Amino acid sequence: MTLQRNVYPAGKLVYAERDPADRIFMVLAGIVKLIRNSCDRERRILMSVRGPAEIFGEVEVYERCARETAAVAHNQLTVLSMDERAFRRWIRRYRAVEDSLLRDMARQLRRANRQLTHLRCIDVGSQLAHVIVEACSKFGTIAHHLWSVDLGLALLECNQQIGASKETVNKVLADFVDRGWLRIEGQTLFVVAPEQLTRRTEDS
C-alpha cells in the first residue's frame, strides 16, 4: 500500500468542489475545512471540520462521484492519502478497516442530524453553547480543569453553523464572558464554567 504525505499551508486548497474523487485522506496534524458553494453560488458554506486522526474525502470515493465539497487547510495541514485503487484493495483485504470507516461515516451522519435538529429548535444562546461544547470536545484540550480551544476555530464553527448574524453571535459570546462562563486570552477560548455552558445547550 502506497501512502502519500503532503503538507498544505493555511488557506491552501486540497481539492476543489466537483473535482474527480480519486483519493482518500487522513489528517495527521492541523485542521481541514470541508466547504461547498451555496445554491446561488454567492456564499461558501462550511459543511464540516476534520482534525487529527480523522478521514475526509471517503464518501465520494465510496460513491464514485465528483467531490461534493472543497477541502481547504484551516491552518498548516499535514495529511496522508492513498489513491482509489489502493484504497479498495486495502478494504477488501482488511474488512475491519471498512467496518471502521462505515462506523465513522455513520457517526458523522448522526452528528449532522443531531446538530440540524438541535439548531433548528433552540435560541441563539443555546446554539452558541452547543457549538462551543462540540468544538471543545472535538478539538480542545483540558488543563487545570479548564477546557480550552482555538478561538478562531470556535468562531469559525459558530458563524457558519448558527443561523444568526455575526454581530448577534458576538453579542451572545460577550454575554457568556460577562457571566464568567468563558474567558478569552489572545487566540484561546477557555471554558471556565462547563456545567453552566452545558446546561445552556438544553435551554430553549
Describe the structure.
This is CRP-like cAMP-binding protein. Residues 1-108 form the Cyclic nucleotide-binding domain. GO terms for molecular function: DNA-binding transcription factor activity. The protein has two domains: 4-116, Jelly Rolls; 124-203, Orthogonal Bundle (Arc Repressor Mutant, subunit A), CATH 1.10.10. Helix content is 44%, strand content 28%. It has a four-stranded antiparallel β-sheet. The protein is globular and about 55 Å long. The model has no long low-confidence stretch (mean pLDDT 84). Helix 2 crosses helix 3, helix 4 (124-139) crosses helix 5 and helix 4 (124-139) packs across helix 7. The protein has helices at 58-63, 84-93, 95-121, 124-139, 151-161, 166-178, 194-200, and strands at residues 4-8, 13-15, 23-29, 32-37, 44-50, 55-56, 70-73, 77-83, 141-143, 146-150, 182-185, 188-191. By secondary structure, it is α+β, with helices and mostly antiparallel strands.
